[in-house]
Specification:
Rossmann fold, binds S-adenosylmethionine, alpha/beta, 224 residues, 9 helices, eight-stranded mixed sheet
Length: 224
């Protein structure tokens, strides 16, 4: 595992994220288990080719990368996050789960990074966002950057909050208000914008709404 740093250009949001996660990272995995739905379905659907590379953008505590390591024993793991605090937890998780020798972590902003500079390779077989785009102000740019990180046959997977259209109205209002406290904004344009971006790049797009529209899952495949 190596750890790069890229703090200056990202200071404002990195400070916000470090502020939220400095203490929460210690209870993050336990507390998020029951409401960040669909994460394990995303991991199971990655279908990483043998020896393939997987980048999680906004890897947080490393919980998902550990899950990738378990499911795909020959996968090479890459994680980036804007929060140095979260990366401390991710680094420890990789050590604890014995994934250290096939993991590289870096501190960077999803809207402004070079995978070549951070990891020594420009593209990956699988790239994914898990409950991260709802925290990135310029999420559209983050999606575009992620698509540019796909090698031939590569896939971008996203799981995040949906619009909750099937939920009781008061529950939905309460949920969205509570999420705002944590700087989380479900992106109503996430599916339509991603579909549009995929079309401009001749990529194949799919979108699933689950759990009464609580969760959205998106997959974009670069065919060649
Ligand atoms: C809700 S957590 C999700 C963590 C992990 N993906 C999961 O599913 O448990 C969102 C993560 O995105 C990171 N993040 C927020 N904005 C970011 C950005 N602009 N670039 C990279 N990471 C960012 C946060 O620091 C945090 O670790």
């Amino acid at each position: 595992m190596s750890m790069n740093s890229k703090a200056d250009a990202t200071r404002p949001q990195s400070e916000t994220m470090d502020g939220i996660y400095r203490f929460q990272r210690h209870i993050y995995d336990v507390t998020r288990r029951y409401y960040l739905l669909g994460r394990d379905d995303l991991l199971a659907g990655l279908a990483v080719p043998a020896g393939g590379s997987v980048l999680e953008i906004g890897c947080g505590t490393g919980r998902n990368l550990v899950g990738v390591a378990r499911r795909f024993p020959s996968a090479k793991l890459f994680g980036l996050d804007i929060s140095e605090e979260m990366l401390k937890s991710a680094g420890s998780a990789m050590v604890r789960h014995d994934c250290l020798n096939r993991t590289r972590l870096a501190c960077a902003d999803a809207t402004d990074f070079s995978a070549q500079d951070l990891f020594g390779q420009p593209t990956f077989d699988r790239v994914f966002f898990s409950y991260t785009l709802s925290m990135i102000p310029n999420w559209q740019l983050a999606v575009e950057n992620a698509l540019n990180c796909l090698g031939p046959g590569g896939q971008l997977h996203v799981v995040d909050f949906g619009q909750g259209d099937g939920l009781p109205k008061t529950f939905r209002r309460g949920l969205f208000a509570w999420l705002r406290i944590f700087h989380v904004s479900p992106r109503d344009q996430l599916a339509s914008h991603s579909r549009h971006l995929a079309a401009t790049k001749a990529m194949v797009f799919s979108h699933k709404s689950r759990f009464r529209d609580y969760t959205w899952q998106i997959k974009i495949t670069k065919v060649t």
